[in-house]
Amino acid sequence: MTQERTQLTGHILLVSAAAVIVIAGAKAAAAILIPFLLAFFIAVISAPLMRWLTQHKIPDALAILILVGGFVFVGSMVATLVGSTLNSFYQDMPLYEEKLGALVTNAVAWLRSMGLEVADNIVTEYVNPGAVMTMVASVFNGLGGVLANTFLILFTVVFILLEASSFPAKLKRAFGEETTAFVQFERFNNSVQQYLAIKSLVSLGTGCTIGLILWVIGVDYAPLWALVAFLLNYIPNIGSIIAAIPAVLIALIQLGVGEAVLVGISYVLVNTIFGNVIEPRLMGRSLGLSTLVVFISLVFWGWILGPVGMLLSIPLTMVMKIALESRPQSRWIATLLDHD
Hints:
- The protein has helices spanning 2-28, 30-55, 60-113, 122-126, 129-147, 150-164, 167-175, 181-217, 222-232, 239-254, 257-283, 291-305, 307-325, 331-337.
- By secondary structure, it is mainly α.
- Helix 8 runs antiparallel to helix 13.
């Protein structure tokens, strides 16, 4: 009995030490790891389209060329739109900061007129308008660094798609014809593809709807906030709240309290419809994570990979959860991560 406990303790210590080494290595190699992670997710989402093209008698090389051409075209359009919008946003930031500071000062004066004692230094200590506006810009600065690795990401996607067709044969050669590794890999691959494809579709619908509503209301930089809504929709529960903050602030500064409330209500309705009605029906089964796991994964992957890690935190955690579900020995861990 003592020997079994000793072996179990040694195994736990060995696994813990290996986990620490892997985490430290991932954090140290974040600059090179981020492009490959993005390439992996792009390749997973692109695989069904690649398969559809090849099934219609299009050669692999031409199919990949079509996909890469589509990525370059869409990426160039988005980069041009976001780049010009961000430049204008940076130029207007001092004005927004000044107006936001004036709103906070007026709010403090109103509270004092209602008989509430508010310290003079509360604005400088607890409310920093410049930090609020700079937070949005800092996220895009972190994402902008990814654009420098565009060619590396595209080439990696190409090689992954080229290798995908021969991977099943390699598994059979490596583990034998009777191996179940291919079945497990297929189950894992299909689950990841389903999750990423549906999540991307729902995020796109959320972003486009938010952008259209903001444009109708007249909020400045509606395409920028639409992109923020699209990206942060990959983070369930808290992503939609974070995405709404800058848009509501801009609406408050630019248009007033009534329009800001309308923008906030619009975010709640859109995210409720897409997140609680459309997405569960498309998923077909629960792939959710508990709120605690969502928060921990956001902090963990953000600490390791920076702003991009925060955006990829839920897809990365979902990949880990699906991988754990594929093996009976680790299925209990996936159950602990579930929201039910």
